[in-house]
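Incident log, structure service

09:12 report received: a user says their structure output differs between two submissions of the same chain.
09:20 pulled the input from the user's history:
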Amino acid sequence: MTDTVEIFTDGACSGNPGPGGWGVVLRFGDEERQLSGGESDTTNNRMELLAAIRALETLKRRCRVVVTTDSQYVMKGVTEWMPVWKRNGWRTSSKKPVRNQDLWTELDELLSAHEVSWEWVRGHTGHPENEQADYLARQAIRDLELE
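09:34 re-ran on a clean worker, output below:
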């Protein structure tokens, strides 16, 4: 497995909850693809998760993936919390149901098909692909507001 796909994700919300959007920049070699979408009543965390889910859904075959996100929620969720949640039947350490379990389980299934590593970047600090993903997410919110 030598193919490496770079994925840059971001989610945004106008109010939390409120209209939300997600944006993705995918890069494979010299090829780049941008994706975005939104929901009229959602949360920032759901949009962050959907960005990663929609990006992984586009991959046609097993590959090495590097996901770069500014969301501690998504990165820690995948790398630290999810294994514990799964062992606990999708319950937190305080025995409460995991929020956004529908999206976490969908993301977990998609991750199992690839070799995925995660990188965190601080948002809004000029990282070009993160800024582009943020722009796409915010544009998706503007598009919703025009409907």
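09:41 both user submissions now match this output. Likely a transient worker issue. Closing.
09:42 reviewer note: Strands lie at 4-13, 18-28, 31-42, 64-69, 115-120. The radius of gyration is 15 Å.
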